[in-house]
């Protein structure tokens, strides 16, 4: 049997040398916000079930929801709702065959990020 000599092959780009594009970051954030909203929904359902169970159990759940941690989770969930909504609109725009060139896709990415923050702040000020 011949002696196998390992072949030196180039490595694929890795995180150390790969510069992520805005489109990939917004795509990843869309997936993260979707999953984070599931966690927030479980928290709200827990709070509602606690309200239906007993006053003592509701007091515990309400203390968690109204704490600084609960406020943070609900505020980030509000941002996630707006982000996910705007990402869906952008996706529909892409599905129609529009905005697929790189400059337009990057502009829409910035609109997505800035728009979600602005709409979150407006919603917090109105509520």
Structure description:
The protein is an all-alpha fold. The protein has a single domain, classed as Fumarate reductase/succinate dehydrogenase, transmembrane subunit (3 helical TM bundles of succinate and fumarate reductases), CATH 1.20.1300. Helices cover 76% and strands 0% of the residues. The protein contains 4 helices and no strands. It has helices at 22-53, 55-65, 68-95, 102-126. It is flat.
Question: Which structural class should the secondary elements be placed in?
Answer: mainly alpha
**Beta-strand segment tally:** 0
Order of helices and strands: HHHH
- Give the domain tally: 1
Overall pLDDT: 90
The H-level CATH homologous superfamily, spelled out, is Fumarate reductase/succinate dehydrogenase, transmembrane subunit
Radius of gyration: 22 Å
Helix proportion: over 70%
Terminus-to-terminus distance = 77 Å
Largest sheet, described in full?
none
Provide a compact summary of the structure.
The chain is mostly helical and 127 residues long. 76% of the residues lie in helices and 0% in strands. Helix 1 runs antiparallel to helix 2, helix 1 packs across helix 3 and helix 3 runs antiparallel to helix 4.
Question: What tags apply to this protein structure?
Answer:
127 residues, mainly alpha, 3 helical TM bundles of succinate and fumarate reductases, 4 helices, flat
Topology:
Elements: H1 22-53, H2 55-65, H3 68-95, H4 102-126
């Amino acid at each position: 049997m011949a002696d196998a000599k390992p072949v030196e092959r180039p490595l694929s780009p890795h995180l150390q040398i790969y510069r992520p594009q805005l489109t990939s970051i917004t795509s990843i954030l869309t997936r993260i916000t979707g999953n984070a909203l599931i966690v927030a929904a479980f928290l709200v359902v827990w709070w509602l079930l606690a309200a239906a169970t007993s006053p003592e159990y509701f007091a515990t759940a309400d203390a968690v929801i109204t704490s600084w941690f609960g406020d943070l989770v609900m505020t980030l969930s509000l941002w996630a709702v707006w982000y996910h909504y705007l990402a869906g609109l952008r996706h529909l725009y892409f599905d129609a065959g529009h905005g697929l060139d790189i400059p337009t896709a990057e502009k829409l990415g910035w609109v997505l990020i800035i728009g979600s923050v602005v709409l979150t702040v407006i919603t917090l000020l109105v509520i």
